[in-house]
Amino acid sequence: MSVEVITAIRQLRQRLSALRRQGRSIGCVPTMGALHAGHGALMERARASSDVVVVTIFVNPLQFDRRDDYERYARTFEADCQFSAEHGADIVFAPSAEEMYPQPMATYVEAPEITQYLCGAFRPGHFRGVATVVAKLFNIVQPDAAYFGEKDAQQLALIQQMTCDLNFPIEIVPVATVREHDGLALSSRNQRLTADERKAAPILFQALSEGRHLIASGERQPAKVKAAALAVIGREPLVKVEYFEAVDERMQPVEKIQDDVRLAVAAWLGPTRLIDNVLCRVA
Amino acid sequence: MSVEVITAIRQLRQRLSALRRQGRSIGCVPTMGALHAGHGALMERARASSDVVVVTIFVNPLQFDRRDDYERYARTFEADCQFSAEHGADIVFAPSAEEMYPQPMATYVEAPEITQYLCGAFRPGHFRGVATVVAKLFNIVQPDAAYFGEKDAQQLALIQQMTCDLNFPIEIVPVATVREHDGLALSSRNQRLTADERKAAPILFQALSEGRHLIASGERQPAKVKAAALAVIGREPLVKVEYFEAVDERMQPVEKIQDDVRLAVAAWLGPTRLIDNVLCRVA
Question: Which residues in chain A are closer than 8 Å to B112, comparing Cβ atoms?
């Protein structure tokens, strides 16, 4: 089982434009590599609705707010290609940083409102880097559809907003978070956890679940939901909460829970930062 | 002689995608209407290299820093369609503001460095509006090439930078400024000038020409070029200079003239703001 690896933008464009002329639809799964079953779910979803599945693997320097995080980010290219092939990808597009940024960047895509809270408040420049590189990848791959995980809820909201506001002719398909048996959301960063941190990490999903349970039971005060969730996380001294918020679909904290809300959390386990979220339906 | 007028994005996409499937190349001329011979030159250039020429006519509210300027901007739709037909356009795309902005915008394209000086310094938000609407039009029309006038040099530099940085698969074609016999650069705003203002307006091109002459004669100090040009403009009391600068191709003022520079000027004649520029070659 093998996949076609392309590293040059020009070559990818030629390859895809030939396929497009044959009437083939193109699905794109943008990733930073270190692929896991969460990415696998994106690829399988793309495979089910596209003639050609392109997985992009690019650890984007523009979206890292800390240099050590960029350098420590897992790079497992051979395994990623094997994994992509096994999950139905046709093409892996893996450009170098020089290929993507041949000259100093002077243009940025931003959505200040969507990125004001949650991760956007703690990672300056991160979402500007995400929106900009995704706009670049959209213009390079020109897919009919692109697939993003709900685990990165604010990123997904940003991409949806950008796609709509800038009229990209691309369908954005959200794919549900994949979790370990104990509830921990899959993330490339999980492999950095020590054994003790790994044991503690599922408390994040437990706290989100407790919050969701309270809302389902009629609680409408975000502060009370947050206090209960933080009390759950407080049981694990290895976990330091960065934020826990109830937000609407534009990623704005709500003062009262009236419509569906998303509970979102970020926390540090030693030097590793994890995020997770759940959607809470309000009948 | 007639042109096909389309106002809905969805309909334009369908029309163009049918043409694209037939292998036709698409050239796009983005305008705000009030068409004159400068736009005519863009269309003729597009006609010479494209199978299908799309002229977009949209007075973009996002790029006006002053509401009165937006409201006073000339709107001459019937004449514009006739003019487009006469200059070889196949399709006029003329969306309403609601079609282009159906919901509040939350995503912007920006190039802070390119837009820091010249008009960018005096028209807050203007170039953010320009870059954002052009990104939208690029994604709607998906042309092979797009045509922009050199009269708006900073806009042209911004679009070139954006196209390159964001990997739009579009060739940006600059087209030389068209001038009246007395040197005045064509602009939709010229028709707002009183008879006296119209008589005074060519002083801008005379000042630019004087600056270019000095540089060709060996002057390398921007301050001296500027002083000489301002002295020329000073002969016309109706003309109030906003800026006069010598800039490089990234629209940064130069401290010494070493490579080719562009002299750029903005000035007010009563309530009307005019801009112009010339490229000065340095052998």
Answer: 106, 108
Q: Do B110 and A110 touch (CB under 8 A)?
A: yes
Q: What is the CATH number of domain B188-280?
A: 3.30.1300.10
B270 Rama class: left (phi>0) / alpha (psi -120 to 50) / beta: left
Of the listed A39, A87, A181, A213, which one is catalytic? A39
| pLDDT tens per residue, range A180-215 | 999 999 999 999 999 999 999 999 999 999 999 999
B172 contacts in chain A (CB < 8 Å):
none
Look-up of token digits 């030159």: B41
pLDDT 10s digits, B15-69 = 999 999 999 999 999 999 999 999 999 999 999 999 999 999 999 999 998 888 8
Q: Does domain B4-175 have CATH number 3.40.50.620?
A: yes
**pTM of the predicted model over 0.80:** yes
In chain A, domain spans: 4-175, 188-280
The CA-atom distances, in angstroms, between A99 and each of A6, B10, B58, B162 are 12, 34, 35, 16
> Is ipTM over 0.90?
yes
